Amino acid sequence: MYTRLDDQIEASRRSELEAILRSCVHCGFCNATCPTYRLLGDELDGPRGRIYLIKQVLEGQAATRLTQEHLDRCLTCRACETTCPSGVQYGRLLDTGREIVDRQAGRSFWDRGIRSAIVRTFPYRRRFAFVLKVARRLGPLLSEAVRRKIPTVPPQPQPAQWPEPRHHRKMLIYPGCVQPALAPAIDLAAAKVLDRLGISLLQAKIGSCCGALPYHLSAQERALALARRNIDVWEPYRRQGIEPIVSTASGCGVMMKDYGRLLKNDPRYAEKAARFSAAVRDIAEVVAGEELSVFRADGRRIAFQSPCTLQHGQRLNGMVEAILQKIGYRLAPVGDAHLCCGSAGVYSLLQPDLAAKLRDNKLQALQAGQPDLIVTANIGCLTHLQTGARQKVVHWIELLQ
Questions:
Q1: pTM given for the model
Q2: CA distances (Å), 367 to each of 33, 311, 317, in order?
Q3: 31, 71, 179, 258: which is deepest, by most CB within 10 A?
């Protein structure tokens, strides 16, 4: 694709953006696996069309609210990247395009308020837990439209019996932002599973949101500040020899694995960020490398929903399924497993109609094999699917504890 970027684009971004744009050969294979294109049938709601919109803005054409609307509808699921024969790094282009379009086109007062509230609440554990608690108590007083947006996973007691750090092998886990309030049992299950495998999982005493949520909402400086904070927290653990960083939320994992790239131009953090990203492991990567004979399946038939951040972001497609099958679980077939469930961070809040359609399509595919249980690997997918599922939805690591 021929490009001629506007002189106002920062030099540090120019070469990367030009390379991404020029790698696109207009083949359109991406549209076949794009959830929004499949739903809406609009070229501008598929990756190829959005690339053209971003290209126009980068070349100096004024951004409009209509351009912004088409970019907002993208889930950032990155299924198009898995499909693309040319290796177009669409996700990187989209994040830059959204930031520039938002800056140029602006947003309505209402839209700015919602996004600001999300960015200032969700990444902070105590704030999010407080807002969630209040929302659940006010549930009967709220409209049905608002109630549907409150996660239906029942509040769980904070786990108290975290395994003692008794093993020579030690790894670190960050509590994250929303998962401790929505499903604290997930990290506890991970700690118990690793304990049985001879690994002590330590909780970082301080730490913050991985930064994915604000980063994809064009609050990139706030996101990078969160990333730097996490890196600073890890450094003392690294010096003690506790290097592996375990993530039980695939959405957090893909963001933390990208710190090295995002901070490569930061002279103070470039080297530390690269070390941090190299140390991040999804919980599936850790478990897959261990002897699993200590675990036994309980006979239930399982439907696994592979989050986009796991299969397209981290490129770990099939790893969880292989673990579950090795242990003895029967896996139900899932059609169109590459398609997004509609959660996509806070997409289900900002694009509720599209998110609901994608959720229903995903649940239909998951339930077609008549499973006893639906399992996933990301807290966002879990809470979104649970709003419409007949079966219980849990994190796969909870099956092994």
A1: 0.91
A2: 21, 20, 20
A3: 179
